[in-house]
């Protein structure tokens, strides 16, 4: 009987040790689950902010794409204007100074003519300082006569 009692005590002690080990494992798992819940909640809080930032970045990229397209169009228009001015320069290089001045005034009405043409084409706002550069290049190349204000 004594050996039977000892056998059951050992079994009880072994089972108690296993239960304690399992309880310890349970606490570790519960702690990990709690940490994961906290992490999940934190990520759920950050997700809407990240979505807002992503949408803002997409809108900005789209806006920059439109601006790039506008600048590209303006550049193409300026290149066409430059080519046109080069053609005028080649044509006018064979004329006398009086003929150049007379023809330039007839074609453009002085400096104001090309400025008005650029304005009517909408290039005054989109090209900014480029319009002034085109007029200056034209003046320097003797395509445009100096304005009447500059002569007085």
From TrEMBL:
Keywords: Coiled coil. It comes from Kingdonia uniflora. Pfam families: FPP. Residues 93-152 are annotated as: Disordered. It comes from the Eukaryota. Belongs to the FPP family. This is Uncharacterized protein.
């Amino acid at each position: 009987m004594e050996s039977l009692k000892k056998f059951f005590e050992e079994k009880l002690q072994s089972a108690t040790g296993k239960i304690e080990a399992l309880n310890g494992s349970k606490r570790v798992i519960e702690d990990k689950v709690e940490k994961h819940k906290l992490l999940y909640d934190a990520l759920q809080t950050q997700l809407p902010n990240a979505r807002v930032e992503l949408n803002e970045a997409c809108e900005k990229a789209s806006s920059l794409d439109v601006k790039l397209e506008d600048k590209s169009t303006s550049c193409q228009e300026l290149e066409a204007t430059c080519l046109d001015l080069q053609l005028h320069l080649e044509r006018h290089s064979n004329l006398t100074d009086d003929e150049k001045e007379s023809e330039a005034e007839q074609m453009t009405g002085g400096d104001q003519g090309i400025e008005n043409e650029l304005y009517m084409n909408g290039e005054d706002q989109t090209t900014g300082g480029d319009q002034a550069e085109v007029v200056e290049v034209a003046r320097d190349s003797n395509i445009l006569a100096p304005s009447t204000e500059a002569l007085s």
